[in-house]
């Protein structure tokens, strides 16, 4: 099965922490240990395709639907500060911000971090307003925090909390099609595939049954192909890695192909089509 081969390939990768992915972070807010504001950095570089929306960093990520789901210490201004975008639903934004603060408070109680406490103090400071931010502040861009030079989302305790708080609760125990073990399986996979031509900008689901015609044996959503959270994350990150590298992908029309070898191999097979040598072709 293709997904099993992708999971095997993931064992060769230096994968990011659980439920972390590289995303553009536009604003970095620097705080002092007492939660007081020090500076805000806009990392966007319009002249660089890679940093057009901000410098890319590993940050908490899960796939979001239409419901309210805060991303710990790496979210937009609606969640982080309760600042609605133009035409935004103020009631929903207020709920999103409350959920963000509640998640931060839960992280503080679980981890006891002085850095998380500083972020909470800053966000909840009386009289706080947006005047300290740049005039062209983009409320839809991702914001994170740095306390005394430390990115709070990089702390091991924060990473462990994020993985724990998103662990499946009450999930059905079934045989995972990837590893073959009896484990809690995901109703909806937490990661998405990026870089699929014609796919959604937020990412595309690789396993999904969103209509009755695709369901069988009373199973819906991702349960039609039962997958445990570990396998789901591994094959998702493996495929995203392959899609992100010209060495392992080729685009033809509106399709993209990925390829890899069972054992590491530094040769670029498709380069042989342009720069073939008899010895290389024979090998």
Tell me what the structure shows.
The chain has 283 residues and is an alpha+beta fold. The chain is 27% helix and 16% strand. It has helices spanning 2-10, 77-81, 90-111, 114-123, 156-165, 229-243, 278-282; strands spanning 20-25, 27-31, 37-42, 55-60, 143-147, 150-151, 173-175, 182-184, 249-252, 255-258. The strands form 4 sheets. It has a 4-stranded mixed β-sheet. The chain has a two-stranded antiparallel ribbon with strand order 1-4. Strands 7-8 form a two-stranded antiparallel ribbon. Helix 1 packs across helix 6 and helix 3 (90-111) runs antiparallel to helix 4 (114-123). The protein is globular. The two termini are 27 Å apart.
Summarize this structure as a short list of keywords or feature phrases.
4-stranded mixed β-sheet; globular; two-stranded antiparallel ribbon; 283 residues
Describe the structure concisely.
With 283 residues, the chain is of the alpha+beta class.
Low-confidence stretches: none
> What amount of the residues lies in strands?
15-25%
Radius of gyration from CA coordinates: 21 Å
Structural class: alpha+beta
Give the overall silhouette. Answer: globular
Order of helices and strands: HEEEEHHHEEHEEHEEH
Looking across the biggest beta sheet, what order are the strands in?
A: 3-2-5-6
Number of DSSP strand runs: 10
Distance between the termini: 27 Å
How many helical stretches?
7
Helix content: 25-40%
Write down the overall mean pLDDT: 87
Describe the main β-sheet briefly.
4 strands, mixed
């Amino acid at each position: 099965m293709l997904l099993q081969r992708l999971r095997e390939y993931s064992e060769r990768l230096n994968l990011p922490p659980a439920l972390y992915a590289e995303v553009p972070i536009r604003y970095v807010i620097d705080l002092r240990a007492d939660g007081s504001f020090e500076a805000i950095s806009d990392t966007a570089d319009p002249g660089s395709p890679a940093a057009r929306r901000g410098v890319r960093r590993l940050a908490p990520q899960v796939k979001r639907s239409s419901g309210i789901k805060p991303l710990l210490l790496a979210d937009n201004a609606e969640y982080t500060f309760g600042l609605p975008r133009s035409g935004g639903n103020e009631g929903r934004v207020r709920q999103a911000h409350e959920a963000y603060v509640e998640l931060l408070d839960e992280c503080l109680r679980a981890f006891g971090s002085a850095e998380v406490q500083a972020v909470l103090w800053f966000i909840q400071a009386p009289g706080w307003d947006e005047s300290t931010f740049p005039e062209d502040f983009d409320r839809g861009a991702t914001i994170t925090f740095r306390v005394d030079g430390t990115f709070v989302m990089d702390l091991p305790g924060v990473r462990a909390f994020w993985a724990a708080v998103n662990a499946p609760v009450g999930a059905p125990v079934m045989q995972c099609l990837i590893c073959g073990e009896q484990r809690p399986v995901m109703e909806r996979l937490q990661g998405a595939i990026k870089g699929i031509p014609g796919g959604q900008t937020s990412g595309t689901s690789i396993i999904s049954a969103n209509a009755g015609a695709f369901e069988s044996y009373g199973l819906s959503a991702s349960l039609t192909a039962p997958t445990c959270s570990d396998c789901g994350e591994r094959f998702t990150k493996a495929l995203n890695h392959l899609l992100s590298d010209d060495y392992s992908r080729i685009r033809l029309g509106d399709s993209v192909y990925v390829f890899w070898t069972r054992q590491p191999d530094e040769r670029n097979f498709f380069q042989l089509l342009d720069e073939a040598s008899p010895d290389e072709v024979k090998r």
